[in-house]
Amino acid sequence: MFRGGLNATSGMGVADHSKDTFLELKRKKVHRYIIFKIDEKKKEVVVEKIGGPAESYDDFAAAMPENDCRYAVYDFDFVTSENCQKSKIFFFAWSPSSSRIRAKMLYATSKYRFRRELDGIHYEIQATDPTEMDLDVVRGRAH
């Protein structure tokens, strides 16, 4: 468990529920996406929202807060040029330019530790506005 005061260099712990929910997305395909937030009181990364398997990328993008940072994973399904069905898991570090400086610092310093806990991520996207995480960007990385 994480010990010590909360400061810009501390990094957060990761709730077991966050890891378990990610494994469900990865292994069982029961979620399309997961949005995580840092709970400053608990000093850990927790699940904020889960998208069901029928939800679209637009649903995922719309669920990201306009003025606050988040982490997210998205299970992207696509068909290759050889007509094979594939799936790639994307990790998003969402840090909109309009978010608080403290939040940006907290998410930036905690990202590496959190990302390490999620084994099976294929690609990472750092985004500060919606155009940087557009579906075309995701498609381009996956192929």
Run of helices and strands? EHEEHEEHEH
Please state the CA-atom Rg, rounded to the nearest Å: 15 Å
Mean pLDDT: 91
How many β-strand runs?
Answer: 6
Tally the helices.
Answer: 4
Question: Which bin fits the share of residues in helices?
Answer: 25-40%
Envelope shape: globular
Q: Which structural class should the secondary elements be placed in?
A: alpha/beta
**Major sheet strand order:** 1-3-2-4-5-6
Which residues form runs of ≥5 with pLDDT under 50? 1-9
In terms of DSSP E residues, the strand content is 25-35%
What order do the helices and strands come in, and which of them pair?
Elements: E1 13-14, H1 16-28, E2 33-39, E3 44-51, H2 57-63, E4 70-79, E5 85-94, H3 101-117, E6 123-127, H4 135-142
Parallel strand pairs: 1-3, 5-6
Antiparallel strand pairs: 2-3, 2-4, 4-5
